[in-house]
Design a protein that fits this description.
Elements: E1 33-36, E2 42-45, E3 47-52, E4 59-65, H1 74-82, H2 85-88, E5 93-96, H3 103-111, E6 115-118, H4 129-133, H5 145-154, H6 156-163, H7 169-178, H8 190-212
Parallel strand pairs: 5-6
Antiparallel strand pairs: 1-2, 3-4
């Protein structure tokens, strides 16, 4: 556009607040959302979260949201965990898969004195044996927090900590689905679903505590 000339074209119109023909709503539970599911496809559902203690496999915090993106679930979970430090004690580390990785989440963990072990990318199924038995090069002095976490995950100690995820939170979700038979919510509405998920995790904790007492 040349200076001094009027812009060409039609003036932009304000968006129409009325629903469009292609808009959708769930008449059974309008607070639920269409989300992608593992294995492909989409379902009308909620995003249920759980934090699991690596020593006991007890669920120590829960959450349910309408957002499919897991990256937005870390800070609310940290707030829940911080509110329970009097009962749980200090949280030393947070281990999560790549779906939770963001610079904001790394900074949020470190601001609370929690060491993050959040995968930056999916692990290869058959990595080179040298990667599993060697230490990475020294971390540069000017490394960012994200770079420092990536370096930590490549160390032998970091790999050992991250492997705990596969034997803590993954079995809990697997047993809740396959053994306890909980695969879908029975209630409707975000608040009711939050309560239902809390009861499911409470049932798991009772089941787990019975085993721990043996």
């Amino acid at each position: 556009m040349t200076l001094g000339q009027k812009p060409r074209g039609k003036a932009p119109q304000a968006p129409d607040p009325a629903p469009k023909a292609q808009d959708q709503i769930n008449l059974t539970d309008e607070e639920s959302r269409i989300m992608p599911v593992s294995g492909g496809g989409f379902e009308q559902t909620y995003n249920a979260q759980a934090a699991v203690d690596d020593q006991t496999m007890l669920v120590v915090a829960t959450g349910v949201s309408q957002a499919p993106n897991d990256k937005e679930q870390v800070i609310p979970m940290l707030e829940t965990l911080q509110a329970q430090t009097a009962q749980l004690g200090p949280i030393e580390a947070l281990v999560a898969d790549t779906g939770y990785c963001s610079e904001k989440n790394v900074e949020a963990c470190e601001a609370l004195g929690i060491t993050p072990f959040i995968a930056v990318a999916r692990e290869e199924h058959h990595p080179d044996w040298r990667q599993r038995h060697t230490e990475p090069e020294a971390l540069p002095e000017n490394a960012t927090r994200m770079q420092a976490m990536m370096h930590r995950l490549k160390t032998q100690a970091g790999r050992s900590v991250y492997r705990l995820r596969k034997q803590t939170v993954e079995p809990v979700f697997g047993i809740i689905k396959s053994v306890m038979g909980f695969r879908q919510f029975s209630l409707r509405g975000l608040r009711q679903v939050q309560g239902e998920w809390s009861l499911v995790c409470l049932a798991w904790n009772i089941k787990r505590m019975a085993v721990l007492r043996l």
